[in-house]
Amino acid sequence: AIQLTQSPSSLSASVGDRVTITCRASQGISSAVAWYQQKPGKAPKLLIYDASSLEGGVPSRFSGSGSGTDFTLSISSLQPEDCATYYCQQVHDYPLTFGGGTKVAIK
Amino acid sequence: EVQLVESGGGLVKPGGSLRLSCAASGFTFSPHSMEWVRQAPGKGLEWVSSISGSSTYTYYTDSVKGRFTISRDNAKNSLYLQMNSLRAEDTAVYYCARETDGRYWGQGTLVTVSS
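^ inputs. structure came back:
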């Protein structure tokens, strides 16, 4: 199975800061990565698909990049409503797998 | 409006069985692959199982192979997960989602396996 290693596992940043989360795959997966945001007690929400395509309705401060084994989710200017846990997921091959998650908090 | 509504969760003893259902509405169900994803209390997301639109292909994570069965009824716009031989480690919120694009998820149903 393809393993996804997300880092950091948690971070604290100030409003307006740029935040970057990385996701490394154990083997090449082209651009078959999605990023999700999850708030407590809620279902995950799709932010990015195909590694860099922004889902409709998602604020443009979110962006994704990468291909092969290394992927990044960035938030250009952190907002209070961005406090959540973020997950990457590979959809290249079964079994599908998620990264361990990154919890983002406001400093 | 697209909706996915899970049901069938609850408390079950180890070794017991449970059948989860997911009712879909607001989109044409049959062409889309669907999946179950679970989340143990305080833990991350774990993909469990997927099924293709015509039910031709099914996939499972290793830990549930031989115990869980995914199925669908396109005439009823419904997805199912039959869970047998349940273990304590199966305790989680189970989400159904439209796997084709990951855009739509249900609200989840809690399965608790405990004596």
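Chain A touches chain B through 22 residues (CB under 8 Å). DSSP finds no helices and eleven strands in chain A.
thumbs up if we can close this ticket
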